[in-house]
Amino acid sequence: MELPPLPRTLRADPAEDTETVTGWLTTLGVGDGHPVIPPTAVRVESMLGGWDPDESLGTLAPLRREVTVADVAVCAVLAGCRPSALPVLVAAVRAVQDDRFNLLGITTTTGSAAVGVVLHGAAATAAGAGAGPNYLGPGHPANATIGRALATLIRVVGAAVPGSIDVAIAGQPAKYGLCFAELPAGPGWPDLGTERGGEVTVLGVSGTVEVVDAVSQAPVDLLDTLAAALLLPVAAGPDGRTLGSGEPVVVLPPEWVDRLRAAGWDKKGVRAHLWERARIPADRLGPGIAGRATADVLAAALAPEDITLLVAGGPGTKATLLPTWSTSRSVTVPLP
User: Fold this and answer.
1) I need a labelling partner for 33 at 20 to 30 A (CA). Which of 62, 196, 277, 280 fits?
2) Under a CB-based contact definition with an 8 Å cutoff, are residues 83 and 20 in contact?
3) pLDDT tens-digit readout, 124-137
């Protein structure tokens, strides 16, 4: 397979239009099918601001080619980002290189894993990322473009070219890009960035599941509905003791959090309840899958702290479960 050229070499002539550059990337096998912004020298310089374009940020799997700030800037322009996105993308590039994240596995699996980005606190504010209604859908330009820029970087620099190295059987929409912000913290509910001491989190996301409970009156019943949803990855994880990856990510809507807080539930208590309730006997699984289990009862996580809770969304009683991929673990880093 011929490797795609590094983004730093993809400088468009000022006369080239969107259609020309989009076709060029498609021919290289690294476009996403959507129109791109031509990365002219003026646009790339504006994106870089005071950053050193030659600064090395490490290497990106799967082929572990070097990634520089210039590469990030070019992909940010292609994806339609504003310059305020560059620090977030630099942080995300560093985060996905953490061994716990397992970018190699995410980019080469036949599964549907995708790289997601969650922004907290100062990063969300600076980038203008959305955490309100439709946070996973259209209406938030920063969410769409930051997620797309990171996905483009991984395809081009890491050479995770669809159909050759990225061999996903089905894929999923998040492979085009996934990014959203977390709502600010409230009493008893520190945001994930505060808990971990960073502003940018990367997730290996396998999909999304809507969790609906418009009936329960008692907050504890809401939590039991959520605990039942955590059992949806009905397969023993790689360790044989948990379901799925063992690190589920749950995004709670503000309405749920308000009701829980009013009833005296804090984030720590919610995690503990979900961990205790989200369990299934191994013999309830299919015979082949059950044979992989090394415990009689499988839990959604080995410890309460392994259940990641985020807060985002608009009015309503629908939470979102983000099952995470296999051996990948979320990683949170500070802004540079």
Assistant:
1) 62
2) no
3) 999 999 999 999 99
